Amino acid sequence: MVGFMRNIVKLKTAYLYLSLLFCGSVWADFQINLDQQAVYKKFGMYVLDDLGIGESAYIHQGSFCIDKSGKFKIPIDTEVVSDRSEYGSYFKVKRLPSDKLSITLIPAKSETKNDEITGFIKKMVNKKQAFQCKLLHIYFGYPTNDFFHVISVEGESSLKGLLDKMP
Asked: pLDDT tens, 6-22?
């Protein structure tokens, strides 16, 4: 009798696996049929590309990459932050002509401006911490022209200039 029960359990298990195998594709057919712009529009969200020339907005500091020539870039579809946290650090970006940006570093409440600049310089020098733009091309399919080029940070055009500006 025990052997008979084991066979029934094995048979039911086999039926379960087979039904999941054949029916699983039906259950997994949820469509992702909206693009990012449609979702952002529906929920009143904005991205950097929505900014006009001369307009400014805040973005999270993790929203950037470095290209193979060492240029600092930000994807055009980076979400603009509407509610800033007092605990987070942000970039205040200003859109300039020809898909360029200037950046002001906005520290968290617990940090000073010099702390923020120091952390930024360390992160940018250690390129392992900075996301490489080529990864965005490879893994997420970003075309090469889907980035804003950052031309200045805190009014400086280079990390050396930023470092020399510090007290």
From this structure: 444 444 444 444 454 45
Angle, CA 112 vertex, CA 111 and CA 115 arms, to 5°: 85
Say how far residue 15 (Cα) sits from the centre of its chain.
44
Q: Return d(Cα 11, Cα 8) in angstroms, integer.
A: 5
Local structure of 126: helix, strand or coil = coil
DSSP letter at 51 equals P
- Give the start-to-end residue ranges of the domains of the chain: 1-30, 36-165
What is the number of other CB atoms lying within 10 angstroms of the CB of residue 134? 14
What string of DSSP letters covers 101-123? Answer: EEEEEE--TTS-HHHHHHHHHHH
Closest listed residue to residue 144, CA positions, set 99, 114, 107: 99
